[in-house]
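Table S2 (continued). Query chain:
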Amino acid sequence: MHSPAKGAIVRARNGTAAMTPAPLPDDRIEALAPDVRAIAEDAGRIIMDLYARGFTVSEKADSTPVTDADHAAEALIVPRLQALTPDIPVISEEAAALGQLPRRDGLTFWAVDPLDGTREFIARSGEFSVNIGLIRDGIPVLGVVHGPALGVSFFTAGRGRAERAETGKPGVAIATRAVPGAGLTVIGSRSHGSSRKVAAFLADKTVAECQVMGSALKFGFLADGSADLYPRFGPTSEWDTAAGHAVLRAAGGRVISVDGGELAYGKPAYLNGGFIAWGRAP
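Corresponding output:
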């Protein structure tokens, strides 16, 4: 039996028409990367404009904060991605919080957090990011983590390649590092803090330094060899991790579910359990 052609309309069992997800080859993913970086950095400019002018804070149904910067960034990112790849659905945090989820046929989709680290944004720590990740068959294959206040972007630049760049400037190749002889540099969340589970996980490891930082920027600093390990035992959503996971994979690292195996995407409600992000496991 022949597979449907790219983007072909096929007849579902109930007689309704459905669009078969188009194949997503590596060369197409690589071609998308510069445009996605530009989208993330444009969203960052909107965020920084509100950061400077002032913003309003409200509360979502789950009691987490949201600002007009979250909404403004999402309003830029989602239509730009839809125009760039009309065949790929976009799952974005603030729309999802309102129950506005597009139909998704299969495990290929964009996962977007327009302003990751909203608490850090409100606290004006500078440790927040724009996260845009592309999932293919449940695996993150393209990612941009842009830190607008820090003026830095971490992004995939092709299969097995990751780069770091100042905003708007050419990228420089990055890679994870071997664990130094002095021990691990462990990075954790500033807003969510450490836990007994993290302490227990680190008990048998040689740790040289512990750092804290907000948002998915942590994945970028694993990817560029500034840190070695990021253990997270609390819940996250797939849009929190997809972009950083893609960058870390391209730089030679891994994100492992606490249940074992690489962290996968397309789960019910887009929720992650705990995970361990390694630069390079010792």
